[in-house]
Amino acid sequence: MKRHSLALAASALALAAGAAQAQEIAVIVKTTNSNFWQNVNRGASAAMSDADGYTMSFDGPAAESNIADQVSMVENAINRGVAGLVLAPSDPEALGPPVERAFQAGIPVVLIDGALADGFEDVYQAFLSTDNCAAGELVAERMIAEAGTEGSIAVMSYVAGVGSEIGRVGCFVDYIEANSNLEIVGPYYSQSQMANALNQTTDVLSANPDLVGIFGANEPTAVGMGRAIVQAGRAGDLVALGFDGNEDLQQFVRDGVLEAIAVQGSFAMGEMGVETVIDILNGEEVEDFINTGVVMVDAENIDSDEAQNVLY
């Protein structure tokens, strides 16, 4: 059960006062230029089919690194008096103050994918995400199983300091170091730009011809990594693991460029995020943390129902 009765009471009062704009649920993600976040949008839209009396808006910056733009979007949502907010914070520090302002305005906030920095734990109502630490460990376990315990592996990451990155990449590295003699090269940060990841991976492969494995930690990074592997003629030459599951990554798995991809429940993240906000607005109790899960998809199970339910 979550706390924050003051915020919920204020929200209920705002609704009772009949504020016309207070029926909007704003979904603000890290970027709209990603199939992953568009799948979150589809999930959120699906939840709205049973959400009588509410409308939904969907927004996000052009790139995950445009943190100031996302802060402005949250502030604009607060200023127009939305009923609730589903937010995937791009930066755990920068998004703390605007979420706190939403709390003070009586607007319930449900975080998806990434948490806020320490000190902001009491200004949102629920957090829905992949357990990124568990997911990172799962990928590391697969890396050791496929690549062995000796040699070097590269880590191609995305945006340093983002909550999901800290858990996913941090726990991957920790697991590798605790359970093998594999040497970590990197991590390198693509800023969630596919072209950056392609160029970085090309350089890493050239500088480290003896790599036994490589991990691309989110969708644009893994796509750029996969393309670089193909261009370098290294497909099947080293164990390549990705994260997320768009069509490009699925094809890399089918073609043997990637051994496997760890896929989050992005549709579920959007759908359950909106449903959770509506539950809060209806005065229902919600869990502090809701795990939206991850599935390891490889050539053997890619056509299974379990995999097809999370791929996009």
TrEMBL record:
GO terms for molecular function: carbohydrate binding. Residues 25-285 form the Periplasmic binding protein domain. The keyword Methyltransferase does not apply. InterPro entries: Peripla_BP_I, SBP_2_dom. Residues 1-22 form the signal peptide. GO terms for cellular component: cell envelope. Belongs to the bacterial solute-binding protein 2 family. This is LacI family transcriptional regulator. It comes from Histidinibacterium lentulum.
